[in-house]
Amino acid sequence: MTFWRMLNLEGRAGAIMLAALVAMALLTPWIAPGDPLAITGEPMLRPFASSAHIFGTDRLGRDVLAGLLHGTRTTLLVACFSAAVALIVGSIIGTLAGYLGGLADTVLMRMTEAFQTVPSFLLALAAVSVTGPSVPTLIFAISLGTWTQAARVTRAEVLSLRERDFVAAARTLGMRPLEIAFREVLPNAFGPTASLAAISVAAAILIEAALSFLGFGDPNRVTWGSMIAEGRTVLRAAPYLSIVPGVALVVTVLGVHLLGRGLSRTERLQP
Amino acid sequence: MTETYLRVRNLRVNYDQTAALHDVSFDLARGGRLAVIGESGSGKSTLAMAIAGLLPGSARTEGAIEFPGFSHVPKLGKDIGVLFQDPSGSLDPVMNIGDQIAEVVMTHEGTDWISARVRAVELLDRVRIPKALSRLNSYPHELSGGQKQRIALAAALAGNPSLLIADEPTSALDTVVQRHIVNLLDELVRDSGLTLLFVTHDIALASERADEIAVLYKGELVEAGSTAKVLGQPEHAYTKALIGTHIALDTPRRKRLAEIDASKLQ
Amino acid sequence: MTEGARALPVLEVDNLAKRFGDRGAAGLKDVTFAVAQDETLAIVGASGSGKTTLARLIMRLANPEAGSIRLHGRDVTRLHGEPLRRMRPRFQMVFQDALAAFNPRASVRRILEDPLRIHGLAEPKDFDASIDTVLERVGLGTEFRQRLPLELSGGQRQRVAIARAILTRPDLIVLDEPVSALDVSVRAQILNLLLDLQDETGVAYLFISHDLAVVRAFADRMIVMEEGRIVEDGTTEGVLAAPQAKATRILIDAVPRLIR
């Protein structure tokens, strides 16, 4: 509960929103058992028209609520893992570049810049079209474009930390450069990088949704992006088919941002 | 040296549950130099900040801090100047030093920018910054620690205060620079009738520079009086122990040095 | 150690030069001196005289442009990588600001375990015993093992720093203003601890300071530096009784005298 007390109002609102989403994802097998792609009723039922289909059904008669819940699982899975991969890869590369300096720094940072020049969505799109859609390749494709920010932030922090006396002390003890970089420097440089997590997760959610919208998502899974794409064809007749998953997307990204802001405020208050 | 400038009576300061100062009372005469001596945790900085009115909001204060010569409550910056230990911390790193000093002058004297800059040059001259005019556009990072402390002093004097509170102004500096800064403080007291309250852990520095000494130990004022009396006939065991730990130029080599045995105090 | 090795100075610095120090510190020119076993040599000078640059060069944290540094006759000036790492236990350093010299996230236990682990000085199962012994030696109890640097007082931190430096049983410890940030009563305790350790182990100290009174009480010989050069050297008594260089006289005059 100390964590809760540390958060400000924004952070608490975000935490509640995300906790609700996680609960939805975890409880999916009980709330909406079975295959969300199965046809369970009459097509194009409006929301709240039938107690069996609270959010209605799509044009094939699939339950929108079931799709939404199963979509939460895919979205959270892909977003969290790709943000984690991006942060880990980014901070390792940033630490190496910042601590080793010289040629290693030049090579690694030119590489980072090369990745940065291509918009991360295009990178993900290119990667998925080569590897084919599945959850692991989606995670790989999304993190391909988002690790660069973490690398740059970590490098900047490491550059200032490596001039500190405790790094000099580790050198006088005979600690090897890689151990100094990863055991002494990186843990102290991770704060600013971790505050990027919120941005990374939010970016990953949006890229994942956009990929699914374009049909590059995993065809065996329901995602919010694919639901919006499905609904697009009957947008005039049944706008709710796009609006419901769209609102879910907004709530998720908002929740992540609010929690992220709340956390970074807390970090600044308690150095 | 008869007029009382500052009167502190039964001052208590508490942070949350812990007491930083218990029942401190003393007087400081106009134009006098008071050294507040103590070690970390003695409450010496708390005392200085309480007088300056710079205690954090979490501090609870009881007792009286009076300035008998004033008809109004003395204003920080105008009537009281404060000099801190770390000059890098009290100077704005992205503002040139001329503007930093001129800003204080404009705030307290209400002058225009040009006369404030002129006054800034005078102040830099007064704190013995060589070629003051050409220094106006320098930034703090271009200056040495001693010079930064002089700039901070110039800014503290910009409102023409009658009391200067210096919280360990030289403990981040080497002994040579320390000597220059304390000489400068002495001159200011002598020439412009400034009253000086300086906090230090160096009893020898206090003995050279102060008219009065107040010794703080664990938040208590254990001894106060004229420098000659406090150091010549110390009454409290802590004062005696503190004098005993002094390392002088004639301290014998490689002999064990005197330590303070806390269990034998009080 | 053989008799021949014993006669060699622990540290010999010859014509050491560096044009600019790191981070804008002063450079060095033709610095030559030696320190013997059981001896304390003080390096004194005002800020900007090159004391810190000298310490960083001797600790091989920076590279000189000319000259040599020898430890027990072995030239370490151009050593890098593994050979340098194997020499590291022989020379250690205590920094002025002990808080900055520790990883803020490392407990005292981890700080003291590092030298043991890096150089294989004890079996992992004996780490705790070695740590407790050294903590006791520097006057701290075993309850300090779990503390973080921020949870220690200035004096306790400097004791942990000394413990870390003596764990590898070095021949030389560079003490970079180890007491100038401490309270006077703590200062005496730390200096006494260092004197006792030298009596026990014969370790040589290179004591960097700007406070001549402390130097007088602590060091056998002293070198006065000004603008990267040695302007005076000799026994502490000799130099202080009859200073030759202007820089020395300025430093002596700057020491506050206790007037009673």
Structural features, described:
- The complex is a heterotrimer of chains A (271), B (266) and C (260).
- Chain A is built from eleven helices and no strands.
- Chain A starts with a helix and ends with a helix.
- Helices cover 75% and strands 0% of the residues of chain A.
- With 266 residues, chain B is of the alpha/beta class.
- Helices cover 36% and strands 24% of the residues of chain B.
- Chain B contains ten helices and nine strands.
- The longest helix of chain C is centred in the C-terminal third of the chain and has 18 residues, at 184-201.
- Chain C is of the alpha/beta class.
- Chain C has ten helices and ten strands.
- Chain C has a six-stranded mixed β-sheet with strand order 6-7-8-3-9-10, sandwiched between helices. A four-stranded antiparallel β-sheet of chain C has the order 2-1-4-5, covered by helices on one side.
- Chain C is globular and about 55 Å long.
- Chain B binds chain C through residues 39-40, 144-146, 173-179, 201-205, 207-208, 227-228, 231-232, 241-243, 245-260, and chain C through 46-48, 153-154, 183-189, 191-192, 195, 210-214, 216-220, 236-237, 240, 250-260.
Order of helices and strands of chain C: HEEEHEEHEHHHEHEHEEHH
Uncertain residue ranges of chain B = none
Share of helical residues of chain C: 25-40%
Helix/strand/pairing category of chain C = alpha/beta
Based on CA atoms alone, the radius of gyration of chain C comes out at 18 Å
Helix content of chain B: 25-40%
Mean pLDDT of chain C: 90
By DSSP, the count of extended strands of chain B is: 9
Dominant shape of chain C: globular
In the sheet with the most strands of chain B, the strands line up as: 5-6-7-3-8-9
Average pLDDT value of chain B? 88
Radius of gyration of chain B, in Å, reads 19 Å
Give the uncertain stretches of chain C in residue-range form. 1-5
Silhouette of chain B: globular
As laid out across the biggest beta sheet of chain C, the strand order is 6-7-8-3-9-10
Bin the strand percentage of chain B. 15-25%
- Please give the count of helices of chain C: 10
Name the biggest interface: B-C, 42 and 39 residues
